[in-house]
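Entry for the shared binder. Reason: the reviewer on the internal report wants the predicted structure included alongside the sequence.
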Amino acid sequence: MFDRLKKVFSSPGAPEIAMPAKTPENPFAQWAALQGLSYQAVADGKGFAMNGLMAGKAWKLERGSSTREYIHGEELKARAELQVNEDVVVLVINRALKEGLEKSAYQMYTDTLQTTADPKLPEEMRWLSIYEEVGWSALSAAFWQRYAVLADDRHHAETLIDANLAALLMSWPIPAPDAQVPFIVMLLRGKAYLRMQYRPADLPTLAHAALIFTAVCESALDGLSTDISI
């Protein structure tokens, strides 16, 4: 039987059998699998969510439409339930965004025609008014030109932003997000968060953002799980 079939399909006049075209692999889904993350696409075909565990702590990376007015187009967001010291607050924000939010806050408070608070006011603006900017000489001048660090305590910020994390924040892959692209990574209420404008919207940018975020989580778990005395 199999010999007869072989002769049919190998004969000169045999009809060609169309093979189904291969569906292109999703590079983001492939990358997620390599990182041990689950991958779930959303209805619009562009957005997705990746979920995983890091040191036994759940974390999530999402791509989708912006939920902040200061982010245009697509947004990358990450969150991890670290359960570290809830009193520790450290926020790393690109300086262009910090200055833009401060300008918006100033305009809001000085506008005599505005009598009520803007319901769309992002909570990031409130953090800028609560926490002081801190700095230290171990990080380069180029770092401080690009980023501002706000914290409840400078020592907590120094513990979180070690040499490895600082290097990652300054070494985006080419083509890289420039210094004007909105970017925030923070430790707040015992959780880690990342929020950034997704530009350029490619896999290297996403992979590097995830690397920065996981470095934040690892640093927090290593040094900020309990209260630190100066």
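Summary line for the report: Helices lie at 2-10, 27-34, 95-110, 123-130, 141-146, 154-160, 163-169, 203-223.
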